[in-house]
Amino acid sequence: MSTASIKQEIQAGETALGIELGSTRIKAVLIDSHFETIASGSFNWENKFVDGIWTYPLEEVWQGLQSAYTELTNTIRTKYGVSVSQIGAIGVSAMMHGYLAFDKNDKQLVPFRTWRNNITGEAAEQLTKLFNFNIPQRWSIAHLYQAILNQEKHVDSLAFMTTLAGYVTWRLCGEKVIGVGDASGMFPIDEKTHDYNAKMITQFESYTGVLGHNIKIRNLFPKALLAGEKAGMLTDDGAKLLDPTGTLQEGALLVPPEGDAGTGMTATNAVRKRTGNISAGTSAFAMVVLDKPLHEVHRDIDLVTTPDGAPVAMVHTNNCTSDINAWVGLFAEFAKATGQNLAPDALYKALFNESTQGDPDCGGVLNFSNVSGENITNIQEGRPLFVRTPNSHFTLANFIKAQLYSAFAPLKIGMDILTKKEHINTDAMIAQGGIFRTPKIAQQVLADALNIPITVMANAGEGGPWGMAVLAQYALNNDAHENLADYLDNRVFVHPESSTLNPAPVAVKGYDDYIAAYQKALPVAVQAGQDIADYQPAKKVTE
Predict the structure, then answer these.
(1) Which of 211, 264, 462, 489 is the most exposed place for a label (fewest CB within 10 A)?
(2) Domain residue spans in the chain?
(3) Full-prediction pTM beyond 0.85?
Protein backbone atom coordinates (compact mmCIF):
# COMPACT_ATOMS: atom_id res chain seq x y z
CA MET A 1 0.00 0.00 0.00
CA SER A 2 1.08 3.58 -0.59
CA THR A 3 2.00 5.89 2.26
CA ALA A 4 -1.13 7.93 1.60
CA SER A 5 -3.36 4.84 1.74
CA ILE A 6 -1.80 3.64 4.99
CA LYS A 7 -2.21 7.08 6.51
CA GLN A 8 -5.88 7.08 5.50
CA GLU A 9 -6.46 3.67 7.12
CA ILE A 10 -4.79 4.83 10.33
CA GLN A 11 -6.97 7.92 10.51
CA ALA A 12 -10.12 5.96 9.63
CA GLY A 13 -9.46 3.31 12.28
CA GLU A 14 -9.28 0.48 9.74
CA THR A 15 -6.15 -1.08 11.22
CA ALA A 16 -5.70 -4.10 13.49
CA LEU A 17 -3.48 -4.24 16.56
CA GLY A 18 -1.88 -7.48 17.70
CA ILE A 19 -0.38 -7.67 21.17
CA GLU A 20 1.64 -10.60 22.47
CA LEU A 21 3.06 -10.98 25.95
CA GLY A 22 5.88 -13.46 25.47
CA SER A 23 8.29 -14.87 27.99
CA THR A 24 10.98 -12.25 27.38
CA ARG A 25 9.27 -9.55 25.37
CA ILE A 26 5.93 -7.75 25.10
CA LYS A 27 5.29 -6.66 21.54
CA ALA A 28 2.61 -4.67 19.75
CA VAL A 29 2.16 -4.80 15.96
CA LEU A 30 -0.24 -2.65 13.92
CA ILE A 31 -1.18 -3.96 10.47
CA ASP A 32 -3.15 -2.55 7.54
CA SER A 33 -6.00 -4.18 5.63
CA HIS A 34 -3.44 -6.03 3.45
CA PHE A 35 -1.84 -7.59 6.55
CA GLU A 36 1.36 -5.57 6.18
CA THR A 37 3.03 -4.27 9.34
CA ILE A 38 2.66 -0.51 9.70
CA ALA A 39 4.63 -0.14 12.93
CA SER A 40 5.62 -2.09 16.01
CA GLY A 41 6.86 -1.52 19.54
CA SER A 42 8.31 -3.77 22.22
CA PHE A 43 9.28 -4.01 25.87
CA ASN A 44 11.74 -6.49 27.36
CA TRP A 45 10.87 -8.25 30.59
CA GLU A 46 11.86 -11.39 32.47
CA ASN A 47 10.07 -13.74 34.81
CA LYS A 48 11.22 -13.74 38.42
CA PHE A 49 11.71 -16.73 40.71
CA VAL A 50 10.07 -15.55 43.93
CA ASP A 51 9.40 -17.85 46.90
CA GLY A 52 9.75 -20.90 44.68
CA ILE A 53 7.38 -19.54 42.00
CA TRP A 54 8.15 -18.31 38.47
CA THR A 55 6.07 -15.14 38.19
CA TYR A 56 5.57 -11.68 36.67
CA PRO A 57 4.01 -8.80 38.64
CA LEU A 58 0.82 -7.58 36.95
CA GLU A 59 1.99 -3.99 37.33
CA GLU A 60 4.77 -4.79 34.87
CA VAL A 61 2.20 -6.12 32.40
CA TRP A 62 0.75 -2.63 32.05
CA GLN A 63 4.12 -0.91 32.19
CA GLY A 64 5.25 -3.12 29.31
CA LEU A 65 2.07 -2.73 27.25
CA GLN A 66 2.16 1.04 27.57
CA SER A 67 5.84 1.16 26.65
CA ALA A 68 5.37 -1.05 23.57
CA TYR A 69 2.27 0.86 22.46
CA THR A 70 4.00 4.22 22.94
CA GLU A 71 6.93 3.11 20.80
CA LEU A 72 4.50 1.96 18.11
CA THR A 73 2.53 5.22 18.05
CA ASN A 74 5.68 7.34 18.12
CA THR A 75 6.90 5.49 15.02
CA ILE A 76 3.59 6.19 13.27
CA ARG A 77 3.66 9.84 14.24
CA THR A 78 7.19 10.20 12.89
CA LYS A 79 6.65 8.21 9.70
CA TYR A 80 3.11 9.22 8.76
CA GLY A 81 2.55 12.49 10.62
CA VAL A 82 -0.67 11.32 12.32
CA SER A 83 -1.73 10.17 15.76
CA VAL A 84 -3.56 6.91 16.46
CA SER A 85 -6.96 7.81 17.87
CA GLN A 86 -8.95 4.85 16.51
CA ILE A 87 -8.17 1.20 15.90
CA GLY A 88 -10.49 -1.19 14.09
CA ALA A 89 -9.76 -4.33 16.09
CA ILE A 90 -7.42 -5.40 18.88
CA GLY A 91 -6.28 -8.91 19.71
CA VAL A 92 -4.27 -9.98 22.75
CA SER A 93 -2.09 -13.06 22.92
CA ALA A 94 0.21 -14.30 25.65
CA MET A 95 2.00 -17.24 27.18
CA MET A 96 -0.54 -20.01 27.67
CA HIS A 97 -1.54 -21.91 30.80
CA GLY A 98 -0.63 -20.81 34.31
CA TYR A 99 -2.80 -19.51 37.11
CA LEU A 100 -4.26 -16.05 37.56
CA ALA A 101 -6.78 -16.13 40.42
CA PHE A 102 -9.19 -13.41 41.57
CA ASP A 103 -11.87 -13.02 44.22
CA LYS A 104 -15.40 -11.65 43.79
CA ASN A 105 -14.07 -8.10 44.04
CA ASP A 106 -11.55 -8.76 41.23
CA LYS A 107 -8.64 -8.71 43.67
CA GLN A 108 -5.69 -10.91 42.74
CA LEU A 109 -5.41 -13.68 45.31
CA VAL A 110 -1.88 -15.07 44.71
CA PRO A 111 1.04 -14.05 42.46
CA PHE A 112 0.72 -15.11 38.82
CA ARG A 113 1.94 -18.71 38.50
CA THR A 114 3.28 -19.07 34.97
CA TRP A 115 3.56 -22.09 32.67
CA ARG A 116 7.19 -22.46 33.74
CA ASN A 117 6.39 -23.81 37.19
CA ASN A 118 6.81 -27.57 37.73
CA ILE A 119 4.92 -27.57 41.04
CA THR A 120 1.71 -29.41 40.19
CA GLY A 121 2.96 -32.95 39.66
CA GLU A 122 0.55 -34.62 42.08
CA ALA A 123 -2.45 -32.78 40.64
CA ALA A 124 -1.48 -33.46 37.03
CA GLU A 125 -1.09 -37.19 37.67
CA GLN A 126 -4.43 -37.51 39.47
CA LEU A 127 -6.36 -35.53 36.85
CA THR A 128 -4.78 -37.45 33.96
CA LYS A 129 -6.03 -40.69 35.52
CA LEU A 130 -9.44 -39.21 36.32
CA PHE A 131 -10.07 -37.89 32.79
CA ASN A 132 -8.04 -40.50 30.86
CA PHE A 133 -6.68 -37.39 29.15
CA ASN A 134 -3.22 -35.89 29.52
CA ILE A 135 -3.17 -32.96 31.93
CA PRO A 136 0.31 -31.33 31.97
CA GLN A 137 1.68 -29.60 35.03
CA ARG A 138 1.48 -26.15 33.49
CA TRP A 139 -2.28 -26.31 32.69
CA SER A 140 -4.53 -24.01 34.68
CA ILE A 141 -6.71 -26.83 35.98
CA ALA A 142 -3.61 -28.56 37.39
CA HIS A 143 -2.65 -25.37 39.21
CA LEU A 144 -6.15 -25.07 40.65
CA TYR A 145 -6.30 -28.67 41.80
CA GLN A 146 -2.80 -28.51 43.29
CA ALA A 147 -3.86 -25.45 45.28
CA ILE A 148 -6.77 -27.54 46.59
CA LEU A 149 -4.48 -30.44 47.47
CA ASN A 150 -2.14 -28.01 49.23
CA GLN A 151 -5.10 -26.68 51.21
CA GLU A 152 -4.29 -23.12 50.17
CA LYS A 153 -6.62 -20.70 51.92
CA HIS A 154 -7.22 -18.54 48.86
CA VAL A 155 -9.21 -21.29 47.11
CA ASP A 156 -12.28 -20.55 49.23
CA SER A 157 -12.22 -16.95 47.95
CA LEU A 158 -11.71 -17.86 44.30
CA ALA A 159 -14.34 -16.35 41.98
CA PHE A 160 -12.55 -16.15 38.62
CA MET A 161 -9.41 -17.54 37.05
CA THR A 162 -7.94 -16.94 33.62
CA THR A 163 -4.80 -16.83 31.50
CA LEU A 164 -2.58 -13.81 30.94
CA ALA A 165 -4.19 -13.02 27.56
CA GLY A 166 -7.63 -13.46 29.09
CA TYR A 167 -6.71 -11.10 31.93
CA VAL A 168 -5.48 -8.31 29.65
CA THR A 169 -8.55 -8.61 27.40
CA TRP A 170 -10.82 -8.52 30.45
CA ARG A 171 -9.22 -5.28 31.62
CA LEU A 172 -9.45 -3.73 28.15
CA CYS A 173 -13.10 -4.52 27.43
CA GLY A 174 -14.65 -5.73 30.68
CA GLU A 175 -15.56 -9.18 29.31
CA LYS A 176 -14.36 -12.43 30.88
CA VAL A 177 -13.72 -14.35 27.68
CA ILE A 178 -11.00 -16.42 26.07
CA GLY A 179 -10.16 -17.88 22.67
CA VAL A 180 -10.80 -21.60 22.40
CA GLY A 181 -7.12 -22.31 21.69
CA ASP A 182 -6.04 -20.55 24.87
CA ALA A 183 -8.92 -22.17 26.74
CA SER A 184 -7.64 -25.60 25.68
CA GLY A 185 -4.58 -24.96 27.84
CA MET A 186 -6.79 -24.33 30.86
CA PHE A 187 -9.11 -27.35 30.61
CA PRO A 188 -9.85 -30.05 28.00
CA ILE A 189 -12.06 -28.93 25.10
CA ASP A 190 -14.81 -30.99 23.46
CA GLU A 191 -14.09 -31.09 19.72
CA LYS A 192 -17.81 -31.18 18.86
CA THR A 193 -19.02 -28.32 21.08
CA HIS A 194 -15.81 -26.21 21.00
CA ASP A 195 -16.35 -25.68 24.72
CA TYR A 196 -14.96 -27.07 27.96
CA ASN A 197 -15.57 -30.81 28.10
CA ALA A 198 -18.86 -31.25 29.98
CA LYS A 199 -18.17 -34.82 31.11
CA MET A 200 -14.81 -33.85 32.56
CA ILE A 201 -16.32 -30.81 34.26
CA THR A 202 -18.75 -33.12 36.07
CA GLN A 203 -15.92 -35.48 36.99
CA PHE A 204 -13.80 -32.64 38.36
CA GLU A 205 -16.59 -31.00 40.32
CA SER A 206 -17.56 -34.35 41.88
CA TYR A 207 -13.93 -35.15 42.63
CA THR A 208 -13.26 -31.83 44.38
CA GLY A 209 -16.64 -31.96 46.11
CA VAL A 210 -15.39 -34.94 48.09
CA LEU A 211 -12.66 -32.63 49.40
CA GLY A 212 -15.26 -30.12 50.56
CA HIS A 213 -15.12 -27.60 47.68
CA ASN A 214 -18.15 -26.39 45.75
CA ILE A 215 -16.37 -25.45 42.53
CA LYS A 216 -18.37 -24.64 39.39
CA ILE A 217 -16.02 -24.52 36.40
CA ARG A 218 -18.41 -22.60 34.13
CA ASN A 219 -18.72 -19.84 36.74
CA LEU A 220 -15.00 -19.83 37.42
CA PHE A 221 -13.54 -19.95 33.90
CA PRO A 222 -13.80 -17.34 31.11
CA LYS A 223 -16.25 -18.03 28.26
CA ALA A 224 -14.59 -19.83 25.34
CA LEU A 225 -14.95 -18.19 21.89
CA LEU A 226 -13.91 -19.16 18.37
CA ALA A 227 -11.68 -17.08 16.09
CA GLY A 228 -13.80 -14.56 14.21
CA GLU A 229 -16.25 -14.02 17.06
CA LYS A 230 -16.55 -10.75 18.94
CA ALA A 231 -15.15 -10.63 22.46
CA GLY A 232 -16.13 -7.08 23.40
CA MET A 233 -15.40 -3.43 22.73
CA LEU A 234 -12.53 -1.33 24.03
CA THR A 235 -13.79 0.74 26.95
CA ASP A 236 -12.63 4.22 27.88
CA ASP A 237 -10.78 2.78 30.89
CA GLY A 238 -9.24 0.12 28.66
CA ALA A 239 -8.07 2.72 26.15
CA LYS A 240 -6.33 4.62 28.93
CA LEU A 241 -4.60 1.45 30.12
CA LEU A 242 -3.01 1.13 26.68
CA ASP A 243 -2.53 4.83 26.03
CA PRO A 244 -2.36 7.00 29.18
CA THR A 245 -2.11 10.13 26.98
CA GLY A 246 -5.82 9.80 26.16
CA THR A 247 -5.26 9.93 22.40
CA LEU A 248 -6.68 6.44 21.78
CA GLN A 249 -10.47 6.44 21.89
CA GLU A 250 -12.80 3.68 23.03
CA GLY A 251 -14.77 1.52 20.60
CA ALA A 252 -12.24 -0.84 18.99
CA LEU A 253 -13.42 -4.42 18.54
CA LEU A 254 -11.72 -6.84 20.96
CA VAL A 255 -11.33 -10.33 19.52
CA PRO A 256 -10.98 -13.62 21.43
CA PRO A 257 -7.63 -13.61 23.27
CA GLU A 258 -5.34 -16.42 22.22
CA GLY A 259 -2.30 -18.22 23.49
CA ASP A 260 1.07 -17.99 21.80
CA ALA A 261 0.46 -21.44 20.31
CA GLY A 262 -2.62 -20.16 18.47
CA THR A 263 -0.88 -17.09 17.12
CA GLY A 264 2.05 -19.26 16.05
CA MET A 265 -0.31 -21.48 14.06
CA THR A 266 -1.94 -18.43 12.48
CA ALA A 267 1.33 -16.71 11.64
CA THR A 268 2.63 -19.83 9.90
CA ASN A 269 -0.62 -20.74 8.11
CA ALA A 270 -0.80 -24.01 10.02
CA VAL A 271 -4.45 -24.31 11.10
CA ARG A 272 -5.59 -26.77 8.44
CA LYS A 273 -5.52 -30.51 9.18
CA ARG A 274 -2.19 -32.26 8.47
CA THR A 275 -0.27 -29.01 8.84
CA GLY A 276 2.08 -28.22 11.68
CA ASN A 277 4.30 -25.56 13.11
CA ILE A 278 7.09 -25.15 15.62
CA SER A 279 7.66 -22.08 17.79
CA ALA A 280 11.06 -21.76 19.38
CA GLY A 281 11.82 -19.20 22.08
CA THR A 282 12.26 -19.37 25.85
CA SER A 283 10.10 -22.47 25.56
CA ALA A 284 9.40 -24.48 22.43
CA PHE A 285 6.35 -26.25 21.12
CA ALA A 286 5.44 -28.25 18.07
CA MET A 287 1.83 -28.27 16.91
CA VAL A 288 0.31 -30.80 14.52
CA VAL A 289 -3.32 -30.36 13.45
CA LEU A 290 -4.74 -33.87 13.63
CA ASP A 291 -6.75 -35.64 10.97
CA LYS A 292 -7.27 -38.67 13.23
CA PRO A 293 -7.34 -39.25 16.99
CA LEU A 294 -4.32 -40.56 18.89
CA HIS A 295 -4.39 -44.22 19.89
CA GLU A 296 -3.50 -43.65 23.52
CA VAL A 297 -2.82 -41.06 26.19
CA HIS A 298 0.79 -39.84 26.18
CA ARG A 299 2.09 -37.78 29.10
CA ASP A 300 4.40 -35.88 26.74
CA ILE A 301 1.69 -35.00 24.19
CA ASP A 302 -0.89 -32.31 24.95
CA LEU A 303 -4.21 -32.15 23.12
CA VAL A 304 -5.19 -28.54 22.47
CA THR A 305 -6.95 -26.76 19.60
CA THR A 306 -6.45 -24.28 16.79
CA PRO A 307 -8.05 -20.83 17.24
CA ASP A 308 -11.09 -22.21 15.41
CA GLY A 309 -11.36 -25.35 17.52
CA ALA A 310 -9.68 -28.13 15.48
CA PRO A 311 -7.79 -30.74 17.56
CA VAL A 312 -4.03 -30.33 17.79
CA ALA A 313 -1.30 -32.56 19.20
CA MET A 314 1.19 -30.38 21.01
CA VAL A 315 4.69 -31.20 22.21
CA HIS A 316 5.69 -28.50 24.70
CA THR A 317 9.11 -28.06 26.27
CA ASN A 318 9.85 -25.62 29.05
CA ASN A 319 13.35 -24.85 27.77
CA CYS A 320 14.77 -23.90 24.42
CA THR A 321 16.84 -20.76 23.75
CA SER A 322 17.49 -19.33 27.24
CA ASP A 323 20.77 -21.18 27.72
CA ILE A 324 21.98 -20.21 24.24
CA ASN A 325 21.13 -16.59 24.99
CA ALA A 326 23.09 -16.76 28.26
CA TRP A 327 26.19 -18.13 26.55
CA VAL A 328 25.98 -15.60 23.73
CA GLY A 329 25.74 -12.92 26.40
CA LEU A 330 28.98 -14.25 27.89
CA PHE A 331 30.69 -14.15 24.48
CA ALA A 332 29.42 -10.58 24.10
CA GLU A 333 31.13 -9.65 27.37
CA PHE A 334 34.36 -11.24 26.12
CA ALA A 335 34.13 -9.40 22.80
CA LYS A 336 33.58 -6.11 24.65
CA ALA A 337 36.54 -6.80 26.92
CA THR A 338 38.72 -7.07 23.82
CA GLY A 339 37.35 -3.83 22.40
CA GLN A 340 34.88 -5.44 19.96
CA ASN A 341 31.32 -4.16 20.36
CA LEU A 342 29.35 -6.61 18.22
CA ALA A 343 25.65 -6.16 17.56
CA PRO A 344 23.60 -9.12 18.89
CA ASP A 345 22.56 -10.33 15.43
CA ALA A 346 26.18 -10.24 14.25
CA LEU A 347 27.36 -12.23 17.27
CA TYR A 348 24.65 -14.87 16.88
CA LYS A 349 25.46 -15.15 13.18
CA ALA A 350 29.20 -15.60 13.82
CA LEU A 351 28.68 -18.26 16.49
CA PHE A 352 25.90 -20.13 14.68
CA ASN A 353 27.91 -20.21 11.45
CA GLU A 354 30.89 -21.59 13.37
CA SER A 355 28.73 -24.51 14.51
CA THR A 356 28.60 -25.83 10.93
CA GLN A 357 32.25 -26.81 11.30
CA GLY A 358 31.48 -29.12 14.22
CA ASP A 359 31.28 -32.90 14.25
CA PRO A 360 27.84 -34.39 13.37
CA ASP A 361 27.55 -35.79 16.94
CA CYS A 362 29.19 -32.72 18.57
CA GLY A 363 32.41 -34.62 19.19
CA GLY A 364 31.39 -36.16 22.50
CA VAL A 365 30.38 -32.93 24.28
CA LEU A 366 26.94 -32.70 25.88
CA ASN A 367 24.79 -29.78 26.95
CA PHE A 368 21.63 -29.70 29.06
CA SER A 369 19.84 -26.37 28.58
CA ASN A 370 17.49 -26.70 31.55
CA VAL A 371 17.19 -23.18 32.95
CA SER A 372 13.95 -24.36 34.55
CA GLY A 373 12.47 -27.80 35.17
CA GLU A 374 11.63 -29.81 32.06
CA ASN A 375 8.47 -31.89 31.80
CA ILE A 376 9.56 -33.98 28.80
CA THR A 377 12.69 -35.29 30.53
CA ASN A 378 11.23 -35.33 34.09
CA ILE A 379 13.68 -32.75 35.43
CA GLN A 380 12.21 -30.90 38.41
CA GLU A 381 14.83 -28.18 38.93
CA GLY A 382 16.70 -26.37 36.18
CA ARG A 383 20.49 -26.53 36.35
CA PRO A 384 22.09 -25.87 32.94
CA LEU A 385 25.05 -28.19 32.42
CA PHE A 386 27.85 -28.51 29.90
CA VAL A 387 29.70 -31.83 30.10
CA ARG A 388 32.69 -33.29 28.28
CA THR A 389 35.11 -36.16 28.77
CA PRO A 390 38.91 -35.92 28.54
CA ASN A 391 38.74 -37.29 25.01
CA SER A 392 35.87 -35.16 23.76
CA HIS A 393 36.54 -33.03 20.71
CA PHE A 394 36.23 -29.73 22.59
CA THR A 395 36.09 -26.93 20.01
CA LEU A 396 34.10 -23.75 19.68
CA ALA A 397 32.21 -25.32 16.76
CA ASN A 398 31.18 -28.36 18.80
CA PHE A 399 30.35 -26.21 21.82
CA ILE A 400 27.90 -24.06 19.83
CA LYS A 401 26.49 -27.05 17.95
CA ALA A 402 25.81 -28.76 21.30
CA GLN A 403 23.96 -25.65 22.41
CA LEU A 404 21.74 -25.85 19.32
CA TYR A 405 21.28 -29.62 19.63
CA SER A 406 20.28 -29.40 23.29
CA ALA A 407 17.85 -26.55 22.64
CA PHE A 408 15.78 -28.93 20.48
CA ALA A 409 16.53 -32.18 22.36
CA PRO A 410 13.37 -32.35 24.54
CA LEU A 411 11.29 -31.35 21.50
CA LYS A 412 12.77 -34.25 19.50
CA ILE A 413 12.05 -36.71 22.31
CA GLY A 414 8.39 -35.64 22.31
CA MET A 415 8.02 -35.48 18.54
CA ASP A 416 9.41 -39.02 18.18
CA ILE A 417 6.28 -40.20 20.01
CA LEU A 418 4.06 -38.64 17.36
CA THR A 419 6.05 -39.72 14.33
CA LYS A 420 7.32 -43.13 15.42
CA LYS A 421 4.62 -44.39 17.81
CA GLU A 422 1.45 -42.68 16.59
CA HIS A 423 2.57 -42.48 12.94
CA ILE A 424 1.25 -38.93 12.60
CA ASN A 425 2.37 -37.30 9.37
CA THR A 426 2.20 -33.70 8.20
CA ASP A 427 2.02 -32.09 4.78
CA ALA A 428 3.95 -29.06 6.03
CA MET A 429 5.97 -28.18 9.15
CA ILE A 430 6.72 -24.48 9.51
CA ALA A 431 9.03 -23.01 12.13
CA GLN A 432 9.12 -19.57 13.69
CA GLY A 433 10.99 -17.80 16.46
CA GLY A 434 13.96 -15.55 17.04
CA ILE A 435 16.46 -18.43 16.80
CA PHE A 436 15.72 -18.55 13.05
CA ARG A 437 16.75 -14.95 12.49
CA THR A 438 20.20 -16.26 11.56
CA PRO A 439 19.36 -17.88 8.21
CA LYS A 440 19.46 -21.66 7.76
CA ILE A 441 21.59 -22.73 10.78
CA ALA A 442 18.95 -23.49 13.43
CA GLN A 443 16.50 -24.42 10.66
CA GLN A 444 18.87 -27.15 9.43
CA VAL A 445 19.54 -28.41 12.97
CA LEU A 446 15.78 -28.71 13.54
CA ALA A 447 15.27 -30.55 10.25
CA ASP A 448 18.04 -32.98 11.19
CA ALA A 449 16.71 -33.41 14.73
CA LEU A 450 13.17 -34.29 13.63
CA ASN A 451 14.18 -35.88 10.31
CA ILE A 452 11.50 -33.91 8.46
CA PRO A 453 11.65 -30.89 6.09
CA ILE A 454 11.37 -27.56 7.92
CA THR A 455 10.04 -24.40 6.30
CA VAL A 456 10.77 -20.92 7.66
CA MET A 457 8.78 -17.93 6.51
CA ALA A 458 10.12 -14.42 6.11
CA ASN A 459 8.32 -13.32 9.31
CA ALA A 460 9.85 -16.16 11.35
CA GLY A 461 11.36 -13.87 13.99
CA GLU A 462 8.22 -11.84 14.67
CA GLY A 463 5.28 -14.12 13.89
CA GLY A 464 3.28 -14.17 17.14
CA PRO A 465 1.99 -10.60 17.52
CA TRP A 466 1.55 -10.32 13.76
CA GLY A 467 -0.50 -13.54 13.86
CA MET A 468 -2.69 -12.04 16.57
CA ALA A 469 -3.20 -8.93 14.42
CA VAL A 470 -4.27 -11.20 11.55
CA LEU A 471 -6.84 -12.84 13.85
CA ALA A 472 -8.08 -9.34 14.70
CA GLN A 473 -8.47 -8.51 11.00
CA TYR A 474 -10.25 -11.85 10.51
CA ALA A 475 -12.93 -10.85 13.01
CA LEU A 476 -13.14 -7.30 11.65
CA ASN A 477 -13.20 -7.81 7.89
CA ASN A 478 -14.24 -11.38 7.04
CA ASP A 479 -17.08 -10.25 4.77
CA ALA A 480 -17.04 -13.55 2.86
CA HIS A 481 -17.46 -15.53 6.10
CA GLU A 482 -14.63 -17.88 5.18
CA ASN A 483 -13.37 -20.38 7.71
CA LEU A 484 -9.98 -19.50 9.18
CA ALA A 485 -7.95 -21.95 7.04
CA ASP A 486 -9.49 -20.64 3.81
CA TYR A 487 -9.12 -17.03 4.95
CA LEU A 488 -5.40 -17.52 5.55
CA ASP A 489 -4.91 -19.32 2.23
CA ASN A 490 -6.99 -16.94 0.11
CA ARG A 491 -6.12 -13.58 1.66
CA VAL A 492 -3.08 -13.64 3.90
CA PHE A 493 -0.63 -16.18 2.45
CA VAL A 494 -1.33 -15.79 -1.24
CA HIS A 495 2.35 -15.43 -2.15
CA PRO A 496 4.30 -16.43 0.97
CA GLU A 497 8.03 -15.80 1.11
CA SER A 498 9.65 -18.89 2.61
CA SER A 499 12.51 -21.38 2.39
CA THR A 500 12.53 -25.12 3.08
CA LEU A 501 15.48 -27.23 4.20
CA ASN A 502 15.53 -31.02 4.09
CA PRO A 503 17.25 -33.22 6.66
CA ALA A 504 20.80 -34.26 5.78
CA PRO A 505 21.35 -38.02 6.33
CA VAL A 506 24.80 -37.67 7.92
CA ALA A 507 23.56 -34.97 10.28
CA VAL A 508 20.42 -36.99 11.13
CA LYS A 509 22.65 -39.90 12.17
CA GLY A 510 24.88 -37.52 14.16
CA TYR A 511 21.92 -36.02 16.00
CA ASP A 512 20.53 -39.49 16.78
CA ASP A 513 23.92 -40.43 18.28
CA TYR A 514 23.93 -37.20 20.26
CA ILE A 515 20.41 -37.73 21.59
CA ALA A 516 21.24 -41.30 22.64
CA ALA A 517 24.15 -40.00 24.74
CA TYR A 518 21.95 -37.14 25.99
CA GLN A 519 19.21 -39.49 27.21
CA LYS A 520 21.70 -41.87 28.82
CA ALA A 521 23.18 -38.95 30.78
CA LEU A 522 19.83 -37.46 31.88
CA PRO A 523 20.20 -38.82 35.45
CA VAL A 524 23.13 -36.42 35.86
CA ALA A 525 20.89 -33.46 35.01
CA VAL A 526 18.21 -34.73 37.39
CA GLN A 527 20.76 -35.16 40.18
CA ALA A 528 22.16 -31.69 39.62
CA GLY A 529 18.72 -30.21 40.34
CA GLN A 530 18.53 -32.19 43.56
CA ASP A 531 22.07 -31.57 44.84
CA ILE A 532 22.96 -28.06 43.67
CA ALA A 533 21.15 -25.36 45.59
CA ASP A 534 20.06 -22.25 43.71
CA TYR A 535 22.51 -19.39 44.17
CA GLN A 536 21.36 -16.66 46.51
CA PRO A 537 23.49 -13.50 46.34
CA ALA A 538 24.73 -12.32 49.69
CA LYS A 539 22.89 -9.29 50.99
CA LYS A 540 24.93 -6.12 51.11
CA VAL A 541 25.68 -4.90 54.59
CA THR A 542 24.99 -1.19 55.01
CA GLU A 543 26.43 0.80 57.85
Answers:
(1) 211
(2) 97-162+202-220
(3) no
